[in-house]
Amino acid sequence: MVIKMINFAWTIPLLPLLAFLIQLTLRTKGKKLWVSWIGVISTFLAFLYAVFLLLQSFVWNRAITDWKVDWLHIGSNVITVGASFTPIQIAMLFIVSLVSCLVQLYSMGYMKDDGRSNTFFAYLSLFTFSMLGLVISPNFLELYFFWELVGVCSFLLVGFYFDRESAKQAAKKAFIVTRIGDVGLFIAICLLYWQVGSFDFAVVKQAVDTNQLSAGMLTLIAILIFVGAVGKSGQFPLHTWLPDAMEGPTPVSALIHAATMVAAGVFLIAETYWLFEASPTALTVVAYIGAFTALFAAVIALTQTNIKRVLAYSTISQLGYMMLGLGSLGYGAGFFHLLTHAFFKALLFLVAGAVIVAFRHEQDIRKMGGLWKQQKWLAVMFLIGSLSIAGIPPFSGFFSKDEIFLAVYHSGRYTLFVAALLAAFCTAFYMFRVYFLVFTGKEPGEKTKSLSWHFQVPIWILAFFSIFAGFVQFPSHILGEWIGVTESSTLWWIPVAVTLIALLGVFLAYAIYQRRWVSAAKIAKYSGFGYRLSYRKFYVDECYQAVFVWTLKGLGWILMGWDRFILGGVAQFIKLLPRQLGEIGSFLQNGQVQRYLLISIFGTLILLLSITAGRLIG
Amino acid sequence: MNAEFFAFSLFSVFAIGGAVFFLNAIRVMHMALSLAFTFFSLAGIYLLLQAEFLAVVQVLVYAGGISILMIFGIMLTKPEESGASKSFQLHQWLSLIVVTGFFLVIMLIIYQNPIFAPTVKVYSPSVQSIGTTLFKDYAIPFELASILLLVALIGAIVLARKEQK
Amino acid sequence: MYLTSYLALAAILFCIGLYGVLTKRNAVMLLFSVELMLNAVNLNLVAFSRLGFFPNIEGQIFTFFTITVAAAEAAVGLAILIALYRKKETAEADQYNSLKG
Predict the structure, then answer these.
(1) Given A195, A388, C76, C82, which residue has the most CB atoms within 10 angstroms?
(2) Is any Cβ of chain C less than 8 angstroms from the Cβ of B84?
(3) C67–B58: do the CB atoms touch at under 8 Å?
(4) What parts of the sequence cross the membrane (chain B) (predicted)?
């Protein structure tokens, strides 16, 4: 029985797919409650299966057989589809199915009053299917399919409230900006197939290990894959879509744009890490982009006033951390942070969603306050999430961040180390800024909405994981051993430094927003331009608008002019030529005897001239 | 010779003038009269060419019969002149060009091949000789012509008669 | 007198008649422009019968036939015109455009 279940592990994504098909058929007729339960249960079954696999692999150290069928025969090349179950894939299966299940449960409360909730749950099931398919893909082609499929789900869910113009714009932006990265990934896949002749990770890995590819080609492919990851994981300079994607419903933000899909970029790099290990240049690029994004997004998050946007920039920043960890040869660290981040960021988003519901769909943190008194458990949960992300021991974020810092320090890039420390400081500050603004201070005038159990259960579970997930790497490196990483020696002062700098950030937020020893407005005034830069997100959107949108628009105008005046002119000419000929013909054929006579006389004249021409000239 | 030249010039000018006036007259009756004048002048030309009988026939048939017929036609149809349309003006210009071209070609041919009448020829184009030739050599065409006239007479009556309802 | 002068006169008259046929808007006038052209032709025939290479009486005989036919043509043409006028209520030649396909 157990062996059989292992052999059929590839059926995990089919459960949500089945749910999606059922939900799609019941989209208009089905009862909301049943339709949502279908999604939750199917995802829960997938989760159970994932837990089973986790136990098999993690606890009993059994290898789970890959599954593979031939799909296309192109010449002598065979393209296969299938599933593989390496430890990180199983870990991702676990995270994705868990968070997805919890978010669906949460959505039952959150989307209760929405008329199109059936469609929403169908989309969520489709997303879960795509994401599970993505993580178990054994080759680049299959991965790319699911990669695009999650992009489509993201598009559909961000634009779920498509009657709102901003949601429409955000959905389009998310789709188009990630597409830029996807093109990079696609080119990388094409290059790999051209060079190696196979899409399979295993085959490609072997080719890389036996030095079949030149160093330059390897670097190019690695960087192009990283471009795909940049698009999906919202790294600078393609990060602009992620904050806008917060236009979608909050559970979507929690599931897709915090815990799972945006982590797909990091997962992709972890999955193809052998490629990056072979190319130090690519690793350097990953590290620098990651560090820059971590700091850059953290600075922006300092001044944002929309609670979801703060969390969005925080997500970008944390993804930057993961990239930094991976780029600094901290394969285990990066992946570990991906794991813990999925828990505490999903927790933070779900709490934020609950807060938004409690304040009757108000998202501006300046208009919130005093929730501690009325919904104490929410405040505690948010505090857990904030402590975790800020890196205060013993919460999970502390351990994963600590490992990243260690990896960066060992890689010897001290500027990146300092940048990461600064980002950690900013992270602590902005999270507690939100915390103090929302939960302390003046109580709201009217009573906040109480929340059903749908909200509470997922939050409790995620809080549990946020607190304790860190202990898979401490005191012994269970996770690291499982995914096959040898840990480097620890340095005692790094955890201390990380904790101290986080505490400093927390204290500063406390001083400004709780005690109000220093007025926030005054700081904003003194920092002047710096504040505006951060508040306007370093004008990246505006720059893109100017550089890409306007130039493309200009090009479009030129092309339109070309089309309308040059090509149109030619077409017009071609149209007019026969018409004019026809008009001349109809001018001749007007039915009047005199006209016909004129023509015949003209003919006679020509005849006469041609007969007598010789005589007339001679 | 001088007198003949003078007479030719005079009749030519009258004939051409009549024809031009026929083209340009505004009122239809003036056109008819000027055309009759041209026919008369042509009769004079025929006299110059020693075709006396033909000249008389010309006066009888054309200047008499056909001119009268024309006046009848004008009276029966109440001609009205409306402004020429643009396409008709174009038509007029094109006609002028074509006709001028035609005229130039013909004139060139005529003047490039001057024909001088042989001075030795003698024949008497008297009424008698015309009658002899017509009734001896051209008796059958003559009879056919008479039938043609009869058919034209009946046909004209049938065509022009008001339809009985 | 040369034959040329008569031929030139005939050509002038023929061309005037032709122009009339082409441009007159009154159908009656159109018909009589044709008569003018016929007259020009008659003049040619007579001139050739008197001053051509082979002076002969036949030219005049032909002219008689031409005149006969022209008279018949004028009569029948006018009859057709009147019938047409009754039908179309106009004598304008450019209104007679039922030849158009």
Answers:
(1) A388
(2) yes
(3) yes
(4) 6-25, 32-49, 55-76, 88-111, 138-160
- Other CB atoms within a 10 A radius of the CB of residue A124 amount to 30
CB atoms closer than 10 angstroms to residue A118: 24
CA nearest A111: which of A99, A95, A124? A124
Looking at the complex, does the CB of residue A586 fall below 8 Å from at least one CB of chain C?
A: no
Q: Does a structural domain hold residue B10?
A: yes
Task: Identify all chain B residues contacting A608, using CB atoms and an 8 Å cutoff.
Answer: 102, 105-106
pTM, to two decimals: 0.66
Between CA A406 and CA A603 the distance in angstroms is 101
* Structural domains of chain B, count: 2
Half-sphere exposure of B84 (CA within 13 A, CB side): 13
User: What single-letter DSSP state applies at residue A442?
Assistant: S
Which among B63, A608, B144, A592 is positioned nearest to C35, based on CA atoms?
A: B63
Cis before A578 (ω within 30): no
Using N-to-C axis directions, what is the helix angle for A201-209 and A165-196, rounded to 10°? 50
Q: What tens-digit pLDDT sequence spans chain B (165 residues)?
A: 688 888 999 999 999 999 999 888 877 788 888 988 999 999 999 988 888 888 999 999 888 888 888 888 888 776 666 666 777 788 888 899 999 999 998 888 888 877 776 665 556 668 888 888 888 989 999 999 999 999 999 988 888 887 665
Say if the Cβ atoms of C100 and A594 lie within 8 Å. Answer: no
Three-class SS of residue A477? coil
> Which residues of A fall within a CB distance of 8 Å from B99?
601
Q: What share of chain C is helix, strand, coil (3-state, %, to 5)?
A: 80, 0, 20
Cβ–Cβ of C53/B155 closer than 8 Å?
A: no
A597 CB within 8 Å of a chain C CB: yes
Which residues constitute the domain of residue B163? 125-165
State how far Cα B50 lies from the chain centre. Answer: 18
Rounded to whole angstroms, how far apart are CA atoms A573 and A108?
Answer: 63
- Look up tokens 């990896």; give the residue: A407
Name the H helices within A137-247: 140-158, 165-196, 201-209, 215-232, 241-244
Specify the fold of C3-93: Helix Hairpins (1.10.287)
**Residue B115 included in any domain:** no
Residue of chain B whose alpha carbon sits nearest to that of A610: B105
The answer to the question of residue B54 being in a domain is: yes
